[in-house]
Structures are given as structure tokens and as C-alpha cells.
Design a protein that fits this description.
This protein is α+β, with helices and mostly antiparallel strands. 32% of the residues lie in helices and 24% in strands.
Length: 678
């Protein structure tokens, strides 16, 4: 009996505790708590948790469940790219006249169009939540998605894409532009009864691996009646070419892509765009998935100017799709056009002449500093980087031993004998070298004394008596080695560094920093080798061309420019005297004019030319048989308009520097002919 009473007593205590707890909970679930919790979950975009504070009955009045309304919120706020929601102000008060609680709160929503300030109102009611409990809930209505919304309304979001700026040459011809192409795709439901057979037929016809079709069709969102993109067709492609062909399921849509008319010839300069990666999206919030971004070259350097700024509209529409109100509208701002100093005709001709070899050619106007052409060979087609390439195409590029992705006009090379023009200018400036001075040299090799051990300076032409002009015309290593030793390392370094080694150039392309030596010219052998452009001297083809401009401009080195700005005067730096510049220029003219001159095959009746050729040997020690790079620098002298610097790698047994001059001669002749006609 006592045991039964004990159990009954325990049950009464437990039941009482539950009733008290529920009562206490009802009392603690206040409108203020619900209001704050609702707002907190809204700002965190935890919409499912937010809606647990909304009245279920009110949701049902608008034909929503908690799940379906959560999905609606998620779709809308992801559609406007709401990166954050912050509370500006909030208040809750009791309306005594209507015996009701009313809340107001204002938030700032950061979207892809910028900030949106929205003011919301919330009424409250007590709703039966089961077990005879009533709790405070938000009396939800559509205006709590966005103010002004009513039953049946929807939020419509559209993005206005800007036009990407065009990159133009100096005559207004496009080097990078947007164009429309066809995107080939599949309507899965139209593939026919044998899907595998149809895919094989399409794969064979378009030369696209079957795996590409299979992976595309296996995506989760694919249904029988949707267009599934497979490949972007070349610009030259026309749908008429496949008309009447038995190609099951095939379909085409127009698509705008970036296009590079000059293809391989300008790839290293212009670069290309690619679809943004997750890393890109994390770095810049202005991009969204599917956008394109400059990936190399000028497309990357001028990405911000070229891309412009997106616009768009966020609007409320009724059930029929009619606009009711605009929440936010921003017009797109098109990207800027970039005008270069490049002559695309010259650029293309240079590439055609060079494309069978590894090397680089640069051209500039030595008076204005305008870069007229920047070519690296071999190259790649940037259009394939945008539209996509086959596995075979990628392998051909990536496995090419001559490295088509390497930009050679910005890379560093030993300039070889072209550097002798600079050494001559240093000698004339220092007073070591002068016109009447001759050096008596015997044989094809020379060393200062036995302290050099087995190391010799060699030359290719045995001329017993040599002055400066002879030494430049015949490219005599021994003469310039002896001149450098006489002037000394300190004098040589001081004057040589002034030829553009001290600072970089203000160009939008990255140039590797040239060097005169690794850590100072520390011994006589290094000084002798440096005098004729070997040793540790490294220069980019762009820099080498700039270093020759003082010989054309009375001693002033003209800084290179790539962006067309007719209003800005060229930047000049005085390097040598006018007299020194004239003496070196006269010697460079003899390189072409003399029959024995190393660039005599460039001679033309159209113009008097100055030039210097060079060969740089690549080997680890004297006596070894190494690769040789050939160089030529050439310019017109009467009314200077062009200075070409050309490099071809591995010219040994191909005529060395003469191999290079033979390549650029027709380009130069054509340019000078165009110059005459203008």
C-alpha cells in the first residue's frame, strides 16, 4: 500500500514539474525573444531556423510549407548574391489600441549590385504549438521577403554584362575582341534509340572524344529536353556545314567569347582569358561563377580596365511576370579599350618569318620609343585556351621541347657581339678608344699573359691591324677585350650600367631584370668576356633594342612605350655625348656597307642601315662545344623609324648571325617600302 502511494506521489510530482516547466516556457517565449531570434537567423541567412519562429498557419495561408519557403528564400538571396546582411536598427513596441506587438527592423543587404537597405515590419500572434501550449510567433507575409511583395509575387534578377574592352593596334585593328560563335550541344531526348551509337557518330564527326559527350550527359541537372553544351566551335564554323548530315541530337546556340584575330603571332603579348576559378572568386567578390578573367599578357595586366563593371536589376514581379517595383538597378559600365603602339602587320610578318625557329623579334621606333612588334616563337593559339582544346592539342603544346608557352622577348640572353657597340661607346667616352687608334693583333686567339692559364679570347677574322670601326664591322672579340682591359673594370662597369641596367622600364609587360654581372666584374677574364657580350652579361631582346637608341638620338636613350599616347612626349635619358653617338653609328653603318661586314646581306637601296650582329656561345667552360644563339640589331638612319632586334636560338652550323639577318631582311624591306609609300 505504502509502495503504491509512493509511486502515485512520484507521478504527481513529475506531472506537476512538467506543467510548471511548460508554463514557465510559455512565459519565457516572449515577443522580444522571437523578434530577436528571427532577425538573428535572417541576418545569418539560416532561413530554415528563421522560419521556426514564423506562424505555420500564416505560411499555409500563402500556400507555403516551412521547407518550400526556405527554398524560396535560398533561391532569392543566392540569386542576388547576398554576401552579408547586417542590422541597422530594430524596435519592438506594444500597440495598446490594437492590443498587439509590432516590430520594425532595417537591414543592409550586400548584393552583386551593391548595398540594398530594406525596412521590414513584423506582427506577432500566439499560436498553438501542441500539448496545449501557445507560443509567440511572427505573423509572416510575403513582404517579409522584400517590402512590397504580395501573394503570388516573385523576385526577378537579371545581370547586365559589360562589354569587355578591345585591345587595338596603333591603326585601330583589334588584337583582342569579343565575337559571337556557335556552341555545339546535345538535346539528350533526340539522341535516338541507341545512345552509344549516336555518341560515337558525333564523336567521329566532330573529332571530340566520346568521354566528353558521356561526362556532359551524366551531369545531375541534365534532362531529355535541355541543351547540354559540348564544345565551342571555331569562329569560321557555320551551321550550314552540318545541314543535312545525320547527326542525332545535335543543336547549336550562339555564344559570345573572346577572340584573338592574330592568333599565335601575338599570343605572348596579348595573353588570353580563362573562366574564373574558386581561387579567383575568393580574391575578388566582383566575379561570379562562369565569368572570364585575364590569365596572361595584357589581358591580365589590364583586367580591371578591360572587364568593366557588371550591372543588373532586382525587381518584384506579379504572377504574370509584370514588373511591380524595382528593388535595385545598376547599369553596366563597359570596359575600356586599350590602344597599343603595335603594328599588327609587322607583328604578323615577323612571326611568319620566325615560326620555324625558337627565338624572338622586337621592333621599336627609336625616336618615339613606340614598340612596334613583340614576337616570341614558337607560340600557341590563344583561341584554343578560351574555347578549349583537345587532349592531343594540349599534349602537342606541353610536350614540345621548344617550349611554346615561354615568352622569349622578355627573357634574358647573353647578347654576344651586339654588346660591342656599347663597349665602343664606353671606350670613346672614357678616352681609351679614339678613331686613329689601331691595335696590332696577330692570329685568331689571344690571352693577356700566362696568368690566364689555358683561357683565350678568340676571333673569326685574322686582321693584323684593327681600329674601332674595323673591330665593329668584322666583330673582333680580341680588340674589344683589350680595350676593356685598358679602361679597367671600374670605368667599364660605371658607363655600361647607364645603358639601362640600373633600372627597369615602365612597361605593362614584365621584363626580367638584365644584368651586367652576377656580383661585380671581379677579374680580368670576366672583364674581357663582358666587353663582347659574354661572361655574365644578360639582357632581354627588348632591353637590347633600347640600349641602341642613343646611337640614333645623339646620345639620348629613349624609353620604350607600349600604350599609345600621342599627347605624351617620349622619355629620354642622356647616356653619351652626341659625338660619341655619331662615331658608333658610323661604325654600325659600316657593318652593313662593307662587303666584309657581318650584316652586309641586309644592304638595300631603300635606306642606309646601321646594324650589329652577334653570336653568343652557351657552354660551361672554354673548349667545350656548346649551343649558339644568333643576334641582329638593325635600324634605318636617314629618317629613323624602326629598330629591329632579332634573336634565334641554336644557330650553330646554320650560318650563325647570317641566319638571323636572312630572316629579317624581307620584313625590313617590306617595312621600308611601306614607309616610302606613306
Amino acid at each position: 500500500m505504502k509502495k503504491g502511494l509512493g509511486v502515485l506521489l512520484i507521478m504527481i510530482i513529475v506531472l506537476g514539474s512538467v506543467l510548471i516547466w511548460n508554463f514557465y516556457r510559455v512565459e519565457q517565449t516572449t515577443p522580444e525573444q522571437v523578434f530577436n531570434n528571427y532577425i538573428n537567423q535572417f541576418t545569418e541567412q539560416n532561413f530554415d531556423d528563421m522560419l521556426q519562429y514564423a506562424s505555420i498557419e500564416e505560411l499555409e495561408n500563402y500556400n507555403y510549407t516551412r521547407k518550400s519557403l526556405t527554398e524560396k528564400y535560398q533561391g532569392i538571396f543566392s540569386g542576388i548574391d547576398a554576401s552579408s546582411i547586417s542590422v541597422l536598427k530594430k524596435e519592438l513596441h506594444y500597440d495598446e489600441e490594437n492590443s498587439a506587438y509590432k516590430g520594425r527592423f532595417t537591414v543592409m543587404i550586400k548584393t552583386f549590385l551593391g548595398d540594398i537597405e530594406s525596412a521590414y515590419e513584423a506582427d506577432f500572434l500566439k499560436e498553438d504549438t501542441g500539448n496545449n501550449r501557445k507560443e509567440w510567433r511572427v505573423k509572416w507575409n510575403p513582404s517579409m521577403i522584400f517590402p512590397g511583395m504580395e501573394k503570388g509575387d516573385k523576385v526577378n534578377v537579371r545581370t547586365f554584362l559589360p562589354k569587355r574592352g578591345v585591345i587595338l593596334d596603333k591603326y585601330g585593328f583589334p588584337l583582342a575582341m569579343d565575337t559571337e560563335v556557335y556552341e555545339m550541344g546535345i538535346i539528350p531526348g533526340k539522341l535516338g534509340s541507341s545512345k552509344e551509337e549516336s555518341i560515337k557518330k558525333l564523336s567521329d564527326y566532330f573529332d571530340i572524344p566520346q568521354e566528353t559527350f558521356i561526362k556532359a550527359l551524366d551531369q545531375k541537372w541534365v534532362t531529355d529536353d535541355v541543351f547540354v553544351p559540348i564544345a565551342t566551335m571555331p569562329v569560321e564554323f557555320h551551321t550550314e556545314s552540318v545541314a543535312g548530315k545525320d547527326l542525332p541530337g545535335i543543336s547549336f546556340q550562339r555564344k559570345k567569347i573572346r577572340y584573338y584575330p592574330e592568333k599565335e603571332s601575338s599570343a605572348h603579348l596579348i595573353g588570353y582569358v580563362k573562366e574564373v576559378t574558386l581561387e579567383d572568386l575568393q580574391k575578388d567578390s566582383e566575379y561570379t561563377s562562369g565569368d572570364y578573367i585575364g590569365n596572361s599578357g595584357l589581358e591580365e595586366v589590364y583586367e580591371k580596365q578591360l572587364r568593366g563593371k557588371k550591372g543588373g536589376i532586382i525587381q518584384i514581379q506579379d504572377e504574370l511576370g509584370k514588373q511591380k517595383s524595382i528593388i535595385k538597378k545598376v547599369n553596366a559600365i563597359d570596359g575600356e579599350n586599350i590602344s597599343l603602339t603595335i603594328d599588327s602587320t609587322l607583328q604578323s610578318e615577323m612571326y611568319e618569318a620566325m615560326k620555324q625557329d625558337a627565338g624572338a623579334v622586337t621592333a621599336m621606333n627609336p625616336i618615339t620609343g613606340e614598340l612596334l612588334a613583340l614576337v616570341s616563337s614558337p607560340s600557341f593559339d590563344p583561341n584554343l585556351m578560351v574555347s578549349g582544346m583537345t587532349v592531343e592539342q594540349w599534349q602537342a603544346y606541353s610536350e614540345d621541347p621548344e617550349l611554346p608557352f615561354l615568352n622569349r622577348f622578355t627573357s634574358l640572353y647573353a647578347p654576344g657581339s651586339t654588346f660591342k657597340a656599347i663597349t665602343a661607346a664606353i671606350g670613346l667616352t672614357a678616352g681609351t678608344t679614339y678613331p686613329e687608334k689601331r691595335r696590332e693583333i696577330s692570329g685568331l686567339r689571344w690571352k693577356k699573359d700566362n696568368s690566364w692559364g689555358g683561357y683565350y679570347v678568340t676571333r673569326v677574322k685574322d686582321v693584323p691591324s684593327v681600329n674601332m670601326i674595323d673591330a665593329i664591322a668584322y666583330s673582333d672579340n680580341i680588340y674589344f677585350a683589350q680595350e676593356a682591359l685598358e679602361m679597367g673594370a671600374d670605368v667599364f662597369e660605371k658607363h655600361a650600367l647607364a645603358f639601362g641596367f640600373k633600372e627597369g622600364f615602365s612597361l605593362p609587360i614584365y621584363l626580367k631584370q638584365s644584368q651586367l654581372s652576377n656580383n661585380g666584374i671581379r677579374n680580368e677574364i670576366l672583364l674581357a668576356d663582358s666587353a663582347y657580350g659574354q661572361g655574365e652579361v644578360l639582357m632581354s631582346p627588348v632591353h637590347l633594342g633600347v640600349a641602341f637608341t642613343p646611337f640614333i638620338n645623339g646620345g639620348d636613350m629613349v624609353m620604350p612605350v607600349l600604350i599609345d599616347n600621342n599627347e605624351k612626349a617620349p622619355e629620354r635619358k642622356p647616356i653619351i655625348s652626341n659625338d660619341v653617338a655619331d662615331r658608333v653609328k658610323e661604325a654600325l653603318i659600316q657593318v652593313v656597307e662593307r662587303e666584309e661586314g657581318t650584316a652586309h646581306n641586309l644592304k638595300t637601296t631603300k635606306e642606309i642601315l646601321g646594324a650589329k650582329t652577334g653570336t653568343a656561345e652557351l657552354k660551361t667552360k672554354k673548349g667545350e662545344d656548346g649551343l649558339e644563339n644568333g643576334f641582329t640589331v638593325v635600324f634605318d638612319t636617314n629618317s629613323p623609324s624602326i629598330l629591329i632586334t632579332a634573336l634565334v636560338e641554336d644557330v650553330k652550323n646554320r650560318g650563325e648571325s647570317h641566319y638571323v639577318t636572312a630572316k629579317i631582311k624581307p620584313i625590313l624591306d617590306h617595312y621600308l617600302t611601306r614607309k616610302e609609300s606613306n
